[in-house]
Amino acid sequence: MESILPKKKAKKPMQKSLKARDNELAVTNRQLEILDGGIFADGELPYFKDKIAEIGHFPLRPKKLEILQINVGYMCNQVCEHCHVDAGPDRKEIMTRETMKQCLEVIKNTGAHTLDLTGGAPEMNPDFEWFVEEAAKAGIKDFIVRSNLTIIRANKKYHHLPDFFKKHNVHVISSMPHYTRGKTDKQRGDGVFDKSIKALQELNARGYGMPGSDLRLDLVYNPSGAYLPGDQMALEKDFKKALDEDFGIQFHNLFAITNLPIARFLDYLIASENYEDYMYALVEAYNPAAVGNVMCTNTISISWDGWLYDCDFNQMLDLKVASKVKHISEYNEDVLNDRNIIISQHCYGCTAGAGSSCQGTVA
Amino acid sequence: MANSYYDPADLRKFGKITEWSEELGTKFFDYYGKVFEEGALSAREKSLIALAVSHVVKCPYCIDAYTKDGLQKGITKEEMMEAVHAGAAIESGATLVHGVQMMNKYNKLSM
Ligand code: SF4
Ligand code: SF4
């Protein structure tokens, strides 16, 4: 007789990036085909374009530029299942010092008040520290580094990072999928939870994230599966309580970010047969009030090789800005800001519920 | 016509019941939404109660919906399973407590 008891699952080997696996989704056109086809082409669900046209937001246009987000490379010490960058140790795309110099010119002259360094694990770029030191001199108001936390504990050469961040008054934003070990390790890999806890404690010891401290430490939460994030405030309350009670850890804000259906998360959605339900959930949660504040309306995203994009997601879909100015070498803020933003069905991820951006909710 | 009684895709169409009875449907959904708001009980606590009841009434739509709702609220699988056990314990207790009725009847009928 068949037993109804579950069989023990084999342990998953360390993943590779879609690119290294030669997965069909490593080709960005294939992703766009999926996002434009299926339930959208059938008319079962409305195109994002039509949805925002209803409220007079098509074409989507930028407002004042506030944030320069620079992706210094796709290499990462982790291979998270949901990663929209398809980052990992096998990715070799890394920003050169040449391109960094071009970015520094832009940083010195920009009207943006926030500089946001991301990756991959930005710290793995060999010129990362040089770049941070130079960029800090430009006196930009809010200087963010998106650190995955485990990198700080990954290798001796990164142990000094908390001191380095403090020295340059860097605002640290780190991902933490859950306050329990099981959920964290499932999304991000075995051992990630313990290393992240240790890294947070070290940041706290430098004053990061402490109540009233100017050393900003925020956490990013994104769901470990095919569902949308719950209420950001309620989650922040739960995270604060659990991390404080269990580990004495403090942090400032929690940003609840929706996973966008691109790259590895799209691969996961399709493989787990959740794609259609997830798109339905995104469209159902569409909030017109979030449209005016989506991230691309105040951000420019710069890739490791200097190309300009409306956001980090469009970067991963290789949708360069629809402007005469497409590369950092020819950067011109006024020309750039006079453009139409390129959208597709992944944009529903930014307008679901309270909206979602790299800084959390927007509505 | 579908050839099974339950289709997971029907859950998405739940809102359509309003089309055949506008007033009652709307009243129901207003009430439903209100019930699950943050109140004397947190939305998180209510989600766990809903999950337990979903199992007791054996509604596959509700089970899908409140498992997802729990995930969205950061509820762990251990908490969810304990809620299901709480529901199951009440349900089995409700069966077993009728054993007293059986005993009463047995005693009454026996010499
Ligand atoms: S989600 Fe972040 S930490 Fe995880 S693989 Fe992607 S870039 Fe690295
Ligand atoms: S995915 Fe990018 S382009 Fe689309 S709405 Fe979000 S930020 Fe804008």
TrEMBL record, chain B:
Coiled coil: none annotated. It comes from the Bacteria. SUPFAM superfamilies: AhpD-like. Signal peptide: none annotated. Residues 23-101 form the Carboxymuconolactone decarboxylase-like domain. InterPro entries: AhpD-like, AhpD_core, AlkhydPrxdase/COmuclacdeCOase, CMD-like. GO terms for molecular function: peroxiredoxin activity. Transmembrane segments: none annotated. This is 4-carboxymuconolactone decarboxylase. It comes from Flagellimonas hymeniacidonis.
